[in-house]
Specification:
375 residues; mainly alpha; 19 helices; 0% strand; globular; disordered C terminus
């Protein structure tokens, strides 16, 4: 699957008028988005039911895109555009029962899609085995202090991902960075970033996908000074001022700084907030359009509870880095898409570059030019 290459996109945002008029800040947009993304309650999905058939048709669309992309490399750019569009508009289908039982040997559709979007190279089993055989790394105790706290209340995760598997992968990662003289290190909380990969794909695939993700998409988040995360916090403050000036002023007046509010969500790419199932959907979006957009997703989560925050003189009782509202991926993505279109060019370019400090933005995974999502 990893043969699919990503296209070079032009200006990632559509030109749209401001969504937050001065006479009606944010609430109008939030209301319309909530109405458009409200889930429709449904009974348990049964084989042959309309919902089951719809999920299977959606799965076939993804399989067709993957097959076409691998068979016709001359059409890869168009196929990747269609893949991202499908993720944004329809999302991924639920796992099948077969995927739930064979995820650690055969993987899942989501795992395959992630490898494609992240452009993971060939998987080297012998290399991974050699790293595992090195045993405990210099960060072994730090890793052990974190791994037992990884999604502790999620029964599905605890069943699917034994702690020793997560420990083994993270130790191998540390050994791999030492061999390459990398500036990357084990950073507290890295377990939460690694864990979803193990949840949706076999261990070998998870190791190389996680390693590729860290080294190519966000290396500055995981060096000694976590520079990328601190740059992300600066962007968080800047983007919140643009998205909701009133809320920004209110939080600032209560000494609710970015480090207090946003560090866990920024450093973990929203992985610190349950439920895991919604995090996976959010990561589908981030891997499709760029991990840098997580900063806007964090702003969107704050904006969505603006009324509660503005109504209190003690917003820290409503919100802290450890008490974000439960994730609602569809709602967050819908608000994020609108906020991204609103950003000034200079701000957006810093946003794209901040995880890597690349001289040029990673254009292949930004929001496509003039892409409009009907809400």
């Amino acid at each position: 699957e990893s043969r699919m290459e990503s296209p070079v996109a032009s200006d990632p945002r559509a030109s749209v008028k401001k969504m937050i008029p001065s006479d009606s800040p944010t609430n109008r947009m939030i209301t319309s988005v909530r109405e458009a993304t409200a889930p429709i309650p449904s009974p348990k999905v049964l084989i042959g039911s309309p919902t089951f058939n719809k999920d299977m048709e959606l799965r076939k669309k993804y399989e067709a895109l993957i097959s076409k992309g691998n068979s016709h490399p001359e059409n890869l750019a168009a196929n990747l555009y269609e893949l991202r569009k499908l993720i944004l508009v329809e999302g991924l289908p639920p796992e099948t029962e077969e995927e739930q039982t064979k995820f650690d040997t055969e993987g899942t559709l989501r795992g395959r899609i992630w490898k494609i979007l992240l452009r993971v190279p060939n998987l080297d089993a012998n290399k991974y085995i050699s790293l595992v055989e090195k045993g405990s790394s210099q960060y072994y105790q730090k890793i052990r202090n974190d791994t037992f706290r990884t999604f502790p209340t999620n029964k599905n995760f605890q069943k699917r991902v034994p702690e020793d598997r997560l420990i083994r992968l993270l130790n191998a990662f540390v050994h791999s960075t030492a061999q390459s003289n990398s500036k990357l290190n084990y950073v507290q909380g890295m377990n939460v970033v690694c864990a979803p990969f193990l949840y949706v794909m076999p261990e070998l695939d998870a190791f190389w996908t996680f390693t590729h993700f860290v080294k190519t998409c966000c290396p500055l988040y995981f060096n000694t000074g976590i520079e990328g995360a601190f740059a992300g916090l600066d962007l968080f403050e800047e983007i919140l001022k643009i998205a909701d000036p009133e809320l920004s002023v209110h939080l600032d007046s209560k000494n609710m700084k970015a480090e207090v509010i946003g560090m866990p969500a920024v450093l973990s790419f929203s992985g610190c907030t349950p439920p895991l199932e919604e995090l996976l959907r959010l990561w589908d979006f981030l891997f499709a359009f760029g991990i840098h957009i997580n900063i806007v997703c964090v702003v969107a989560q704050i904006v969505l509870i603006r009324d509660d925050l503005l109504a209190t003189e003690h917003p820290s009782k409503v919100l802290s880095g450890r008490t974000f509202p439960s994730l609602d991926a569809n709602l967050i993505i819908s608000v994020t898409v609108q906020l991204v279109r609103q950003l000034p060019e200079a701000t957006y370019q810093r946003l794209v570059m901040h995880p890597t400090h690349s001289k040029k933005p990673r254009k292949y995974n930004t929001l496509p030019k003039n892409f409009k999502m009907d809400l």
